[in-house]
Design brief:
Number of helices: 4
Number of strands: 3
Distance between the termini: 25 Å
Structural class: mainly alpha
Strand content: 5-15%
Shape: elongated
Oligomer: single chain
Length: 103
Amino acid sequence: MTPAVFHILLALTDGPRHGYAIMQSVSATGGPGLPAGPGTVYGTLTRLAHRGLVAETADAAHAQTRRRVYVLTGKGRRALEDEAVRLLNLIGLLRSRGLVKPS
């Protein structure tokens, strides 16, 4: 899973969000090296929707603005959880080799 995918799925754990709110969350959590512009975020959301990891939803609050609102699907949550476990295992490996100090 790419960092952009991880941070987009992570942004949706807080509930439904429109694309701009997802971009803001990715920028806040992803750090300076993570691309979080419209092309990256909307392109990734389209691919994630095709894979069934996110879905567009009707949202009355954004009906007037015609903003697309996205939600995390069950499949998307499981993929995010699997990636989180993989990252935790990787951190454990790095710690065991003295490359990361325990916090």
